[in-house]
Amino acid sequence: MPLDPITLSVIQAGLQQVCDEMDLAFSRAAFSPVIAEANDRSDGIYSADDGSLIAQGAGGLPVFVGTMQYSTRTLIGMIAAGQVGAPEPGDIYIVNDPYLGGTHLMDVRFARPYYRAGRLWCWLSNTGHWPDTGGAVPGGFSASATAVEQEGLRLPPVKLFKQGQMDAEIYAIICSNIRVADQRIGDVKAQAAALDLGAARLDALLDRYGEDVVAEAIAELRARAAAQMRSFIRDMGAGSHRGVAWIDSDGVVNEPLEIRLSVTRSGDDLIFDFTGSSAPCMGPMNSVRATTLSSVYLAMRHIFPEVPISAGAFEPLRVTGIEGTFLDAQYPRPVSGCAAEVSQRIAEAVFAALVAALPDRVTAAPAGTSGNFALGGHDPQRGRDFVMYQLSGGGYGGSASGDGLSNGCSTIGISKAPPVEIMEQAYPVLYHRYALREGSGGAGRYRGGFGLDYEVELRRGTARASFVMDHGRFGPQGVLGGSDGAVNEVTVWRGGVAYTPVHLSKEQDIPLSAGDRVHVRTPGGGGYGDPAARDPQAVAEDVRLGRYTADEARALFSVAVGNDQ
Amino acid sequence: MDRRQSGQVAGIDVGGTFTDLLALDPATGAVRLAKVPSTPDNQAGGVMAALGAAGADPAALDLIVHGTTTTTNAVLERKMARTGLITTMGFRDVLELGRRTRPQPYGMTGQFVPVIPRDLRLEVPERMDAAGQVVTPLDEAAVLAAGRTLLAAGCVSVVVHFLHAYANPAHERRAGEVLATIWPNAHITLGHAILSESREFERGVTAAVNASVQPILARYLERLTQDLAAGGYGRDVLVMTSNGGMVSARSVATEAAKTVMSGPASGVMAAAYTGRVAGVENLITYDMGGTSTDVALVRGAEPAVSNEIEIDHALPIHVPMVDVRTVGAGGGSIARVNAAGLLEVGPESAGADPGPVCYGRGGTEPTISDANLLLGRLDPARWVARGSVTRDVVAAVFDERLASPLGLDVTQAAEAVIRLANTRMAGAIRMVSLSLGADPRDFALFAFGGAGPLHAADLARELGVPRVLVPARPGLTNAIGCVVADLRHDFVRTLNRPLDSLAEGELAAVFNVQRVEGERLIDAERVALAGRRLLYSVDMQFAGQTHLLRVDLPGSEVDRATLQALFEEVYFRRFRVRLDDIRVNLVNANCSVIGMRPPLDLSTLIDPSGRCATLAEAETARRRVYIGGGWREVSVYWRDHLPREFELRGPAVIEQMDTTTLIGAQDRATGDAHGNILIGIGGPDAA
């Protein structure tokens, strides 16, 4: 007898609940602020046979939407091949190898086999961004690494917990290779406890509805998610859609990297063909296969947020042509930029390709950079070293539903930026400005949102400034006649002299002395539609609020506004 | 201190749809109740109408306690007074930039409108650093010029918000003095005075909201007190604040931001009071209305209070508030079949207008209330009598929109809507309680609001909650909260130090300062009190963590070893993790000073003279109700006729003017001496 649709909906909500509770438990108990505050983590349930995604927490970091099923699949394959020890109840594997279904080294995955009546029934897995995993620079975001070994400690899948007991020897090896190791035990326990909680909740769900019914529901939900995605694809119309996106440089070789994408409907499937994209690069702006696939899924989820996260939703999305490009980098290519930057450019290529086919759903390009500025130095007043990170937002793209949001989070993230007051409490810096970047939104019928304009001074001691940003050379793309948003701009004032990084948005270890300043202007979002079609009153309002000057209004929107405040 | 123990008290709560009143005469024990339509443009109209409807003479009242949504509505609908901001050079956009968030994790669209528009945000030269040292002196002439510009732009209220004013408020204070020389009214808000904590966006928004609703609240209370005075009432009006306390109408506008959750707070206060009286002190409050459901946690008869609530996307108001979380499901939530052929319920709602199909106001979308009607849980005769819609019309809508596409019959479709809605609500309630560190199975469900008692037993079953408490007047709970709420002042002092660096007695000294200040404030209010209570707690964490864990303390004098042990125990209960080698930080010391109001005899809320001697006499009908997987003939009782203490086995339906309570097939309901119904949850009844 087929399952009734109600039991199906109830089990769907139940599986989702298991994952949401794991997310919550992980964040609340974690020490790493990247996990606890920025929610840079994700928890999910994966099938026993091939690791395909059954359910994932709604509050997980978007970039992980598709990665864990590949890391689980890889683990299952390695176990079958005898490369990794066979699972037993209470085991938890740890792995952060980017080439085995991952992102960058800082994203550490745990996988816990889940047993039912002595049989492996599914996998519970989570990912958490550790603040450090060793390597050349604190935090792992080196702009100039040329091999993965420079980026940190790489762990193949190993059992960190064996039948419920942590392996102190493996843990000791990890701790000897990472910075601020003393707090990691808290994160390890939080990450493991979240999976234990998930197991207990799953027990309750299976006790209540029965294993067979839940298994049947999982299969049916997967089929239905696929059907839902296919129904959207069918509505799209035939033909090929092309999109491109560029990365300023890889941080080592100062040449742009290109993502070339063509999206074609094939029956009810969409083929994402990346043939012709740039070759693997010297610097850390490579992506690995799992991150590339996940970025496509993430973009589609931004477009169709109503389709539940499950392997079924991804089934009709087929990615080809990445072999031999920088989107499928192999060992030992450096990859620290893949999750924070390359993934966002891939999403932009998807948006650019599909906006004409889905004009009511897809936005112009968002600022799309995590805006990573790191300042490491010595504070003579406190007598200690410090490492400060300033992540920043930018403008979102305009869309059929209105203007883009100003200072939004990265496409792949959901985390908040730190307050200026907290930064000044913790580090020897003084911000002179933290402001809306006027004029940065791309012109359009619906304009892009505005970026951020901040300027920060080193008050004492010496320090080194590093930048891993993007869109310094190419602004976020406008669409359907809209203009590009403003490019990212970095200026470093040393001894009163302005310095612009050679790679514009990326550079490692620029020395600063007390009184030197860093000035960052983040990108605005792309404009949507013909700027001349913009409501003149909306243009006048932007001028009145000082977002554009009257001259800009005339030049960009062909609107004469008298009053320039 | 008990100055007016014999005085008559009226609690009046103005909600979105209705204004509720409960008036109490302690001398005779007489209780008057009224429910009249709210008057959104000037809520005083509803207040006066409620007094009239209850036959309460304002001149005879000694005290009016008032819950109001004046500021809530102003904030959520963004209908605020024209307000200007004067801030530190370089930082006028802080209120617009926020913390770089977007409204939802997926979907790159959405808008954000700052509390104060950009042209009314002006900068002046001044700067403090994080240590409170002056980097740039305050330019007083620039403050004057900015004030004049804002006045010329039509501002009626102004907020001064400077960076690091929590560390050193001298510049904000001086700017306030300078502005006072030209500002024509008292509406000057200084950021540090509302919230003295770091984080410029959160502090700035809190202050900006305060300034923007202050003139509105002041004007409203002025009108209300005038109307009441015209009716003969010459005493103080106390206004419910978001932390479940009360402040005099004479002074509340100064801290207007503290009233934005006034209404929901009073409901939770009533729940806490009822729970304490009934001996059920751990509650999850469940207030299900037409468009949404409010959930809060009460532990040991104390509502959970938070200082970090975001009441809308990127709209944090960081003052102490009863931690009420809103779930997007109510009686008007719409059911539909999605593109994958799966049933969904909500988050879209038919609202109050047109409302569910069964309201007969033109609603055409199937809703939760309609499903309850089709299953006989709501009385079709009572509902259909109100409008032009018959049960068949509702059934036809269900057939077309849900049953046919799903391959079910109408009853199955209605049952499915209820089951799914209950699953979703239960999931949301579980997330709320877990995020507050509580396992729902350790709590009872306190059901109120128009729709709460109808779903409560099923939800409790779903959550593993063993008991449901349905108070005597579920539809008047907020007004009851106004009558029973205490005077309350909350203090937070941030220490943020390793526990082992704390001197013995240091914490007790901090608590002592807080206690003395709270007692001074309470003595200044002219209100009858039955006694005082003090609550002490600390917020702690392991060094390196960012989240805090609240640890309740038995008193003000607790030594370090005990603090360490209490924290470890709370941490283990919450996370099942022990971390022996990591140092512990004591972040905040919290003290609440509470002036307890005289008790309310809850048993008077249902007129004792109307009660019958036996259950059988209270039975008004037998009705076919779909319950426990099938149609059954079920006894229907009139709540006001039930014997005060009774026991009945489900299935049963208990109706009253303001709500309907459903008792599941294996549940057991009892009445207690206070007029509450307690439902013991039985086996796996489902739907």
TrEMBL record, chain A:
InterPro entries for this protein: Hydantoinase_B (IPR003692), Oxoprolinase-like (IPR045079)
Signal peptide (residue range): none
Q: Which GO terms describe its cellular component?
A: cytosol
Q: Name one GO molecular function term.
A: 5-oxoprolinase (ATP-hydrolyzing) activity
- Residue ranges of every copy of the Hydantoinase B/oxoprolinase domain listed in the record: 4-531
- Stretches that traverse the bilayer: none
GO terms (BP aspect): glutathione metabolic process
Q: Which domain of life is it from?
A: Bacteria
Q: What is this protein called?
A: N-methylhydantoinase B
Q: Which organism is it from?
A: Roseovarius azorensis
From TrEMBL, chain B:
Organism superkingdom: Bacteria
Where in the numbering of this chain does the Acetophenone carboxylase-like C-terminal domain appear?
534-674
Choose any GO biological process term that the UniProt entry carries and state it: glutathione metabolic process
Q: Where is the Hydantoinase/oxoprolinase N-terminal domain?
A: 11-180
Name the InterPro entries for this protein. Answer: ACX-like_C, Hydant_A_N, Hydantoinase_A, Oxoprolinase-like
Task: Tell me where in this chain the Hydantoinase A/oxoprolinase domain is found.
Answer: 203-490
The molecular function GO annotations come to: 5-oxoprolinase (ATP-hydrolyzing) activity
**GO cellular component terms given for this protein:** cytosol
Q: Which PANTHER family match?
A: 5-OXOPROLINASE RELATED, HYPOTHETICAL 5-OXOPROLINASE (EUROFUNG)-RELATED
Q: What is this protein called?
A: N-methylhydantoinase A
